[in-house]
């Protein structure tokens, strides 16, 4: 499906990413949590992939598609896209096999994110929250404490007991950070390995996506319980593959 949609609003998510909402204007757009769309300014054929960062239920309620758009070193998404409210963009999709089906047997889910790889996992997690008895964990790695997208949302869900939320930073220099530092390791994952049948969803830079399944294997989580997707662009907004 190819639609031309207007940018409804743009909000800061982190210093290197923006939350962009595209107005569906009453149109329906069917997708599964975790899927992406190809986006570029209207008339530009060089569309790039962005995972939808909200559940299908959110899209119906809000009448909008929500994207987490990474910025490059020039603080723009790149020449294919301008983030001006009211401007038109072409949206093609949905695409991708990295999806959350929410099978009833999956009574527990754990999401592991790196950087803007949180986008498809947010859509999945918000769908998972619709099952009130499902146990949900989120482990989120970012470069610094200021680069956790949707941070207020995660903390609110954790305070209410709806998710277990853990964080780690890889390049933190601020003195105020008291949480874990360094790349995700066994000590970060082990507290979340409580339910042998849990499904794990991993999305982020290639190094994270390559390493986490190996660490989970060491902890007894079988590979058939792990779903992955890599993000490889400089702005961290292009899914490179999934399984």
Main sheet strand line-up: 10-9-8-7-11-12-13
Summarize the amount of helix as a percent range.
10-25%
Based on helices, strands and strand pairing, what is the structural class? alpha/beta
- CATH class bucket of the largest domain: Alpha Beta
Q: Do you know the CATH architecture of the largest domain?
A: 3-Layer(aba) Sandwich
Number of strands: 13
Oligomeric state of the chains? Answer: single chain
Give a verbal description of the structure.
This protein has 243 residues and is of the alpha/beta class. The chain is 18% helix and 35% strand. The strands form two sheets. A seven-stranded mixed sheet has the order 10-9-8-7-11-12-13, with helices on both faces. The longest helix is centred in the last third of the chain and has 13 residues, at 206-218. The chain is globular. Mean pLDDT is 90; it is low at 232-243.
Secondary-structure blueprint:
Elements: E1 2-14, E2 17-23, E3 36-41, E4 48-51, H1 56-62, E5 64-70, E6 88-95, E7 108-114, H2 118-128, E8 135-142, H3 151-159, E9 164-169, E10 180-181, H4 186-189, E11 199-204, H5 206-218, E12 226-231, E13 239-242
Parallel strand pairs: 7-8, 7-11, 8-9, 9-10, 11-12
Antiparallel strand pairs: 1-2, 1-6, 2-5, 3-4, 3-6, 12-13
């Amino acid at each position: 499906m190819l639609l031309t949609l207007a940018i409804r609003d743009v909000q800061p998510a982190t210093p290197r990413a923006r939350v962009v909402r595209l107005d569906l204007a009453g149109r329906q757009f069917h997708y599964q949590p975790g899927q992406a769309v190809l986006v570029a300014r209207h008339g530009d054929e060089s569309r790039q992939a962005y995972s939808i960062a909200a559940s299908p239920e959110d899209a119906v309620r809000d009448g909008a598609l929500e994207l987490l758009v990474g910025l490059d070193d020039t603080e723009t998404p790149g020449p294919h896209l301008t983030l001006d409210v009211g401007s038109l963009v072409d949206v093609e999709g949905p695409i991708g096999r990295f999806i959350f089906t929410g099978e009833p047997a999956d009574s527990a889910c754990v999401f592991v994110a790196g950087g803007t790889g949180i986008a498809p996992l947010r859509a999945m997690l918000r769908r998972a929250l619709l099952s009130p008895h499902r146990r949900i964990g989120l482990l989120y790695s970012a470069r610094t404490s200021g680069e956790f997208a949707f941070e207020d949302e995660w903390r609110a869900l954790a305070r209410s007991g709806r998710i277990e939320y853990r964080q780690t930073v890889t390049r933190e220099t601020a003195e105020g950070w008291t949480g874990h530092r360094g790349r995700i390791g066994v000590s970060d994952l082990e507290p979340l390995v409580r339910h042998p049948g849990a499904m794990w969803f991993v999305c982020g830079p290639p190094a994270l996506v390559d390493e986490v399944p190996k660490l989970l294997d060491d902890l007894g989580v079988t590979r058939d319980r792990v779903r992955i997707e890599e993000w490889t662009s400089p702005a961290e907004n292009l899914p490179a593959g999934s399984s």
